[in-house]
Design goal:
203 residues, 41% strand, Ribosomal Protein L25, Chain P, alpha+beta, four-stranded mixed sheet, 2 domains, RNA Polymerase Alpha Subunit, Chain A, domain 2, disordered C terminus
Length: 203
């Protein structure tokens, strides 16, 4: 991300259902900033500004959290760690910000983006996506928008394993056991026909 988004928040003192509901009635969202060092700051954010920020960064990209206290501003680099919404209204009801060290790798989930039309699909195969996100490890400002997979050359019956997924320099996909991200399956009619033939042979 070329430009780091930002959001301004202010500290809050009161906690609990009553005070939090009063904040929400004013168009504010109660939140907490915290990090691995145990820093914990109660904050409140403007709902409109928070919605705009979330639409840009989601839960995978860093931004600047500017905490304004009595005219003084302190900037924290952070991610949106958790976000809760109203059960039936399109409103954010609370948010957790997580502080990061810009010089240390972090792990986040990013989407898998599929491009191209595979040779297998052209011949009647079916694209099956087994994982629509993967966990990556990299520096905060290097988090990719997505892991892009070009399936143009994939044939029927071919799968893409996680270890073979293309990633930009400086990005590592994190996994313990190998798994397939996607594959080109045999058309269902052929698969059913093959199963029927096997059953008839067995009889």
């Amino acid at each position: 991300m070329a430009e780091i988004p930002e959001i301004k928040v202010t500290p809050r003192v009161e906690t609990g259902t009553g005070p939090n509901n009063r904040l929400r009635s004013k168009g504010l969202v109660p939140g907490i900033y915290y990090n691995k060092e145990g820093e914990n700051i109660l904050v409140q954010a403007d709902l409109v500004a928070l919605n705009k920020l979330y639409s840009r960064v989601g839960k995978s990209h860093v931004f600047e959290l500017k905490i304004d206290t009595d005219g003084k501003s302190e900037t924290k680099h952070a991610f949106i760690w958790d976000l809760k919404r109203h059960p039936f209204k399109p409103e954010i009801t609370s948010v957790d910000f997580y502080g990061v060290d810009m010089n240390k790798p972090i792990r986040v989930e990013v989407p898998v983006r599929v491009v191209g039309k595979s040779k297998g699909v052209v011949l009647g195969g079916v694209l099956e996506v087994f994982r629509d996100t993967v966990e990556v490890e990299c520096l905060p400002l290097s988090v990719p928008e997505a892991i892009t997979v070009d399936i143009t050359e994939m044939e029927i019956g071919q799968n893409l394993s996680v270890e073979d997924a293309p990633v930009p320099d400086g990005i590592k996909i994190v996994f313990e056991d190998s798994f397939s991200i996607l594959g080109i399956a045999v058309p269902s009619e052929e698969a059913e026909g093959g199963e029927a033939a096997e059953a008839a042979t067995a009889e």
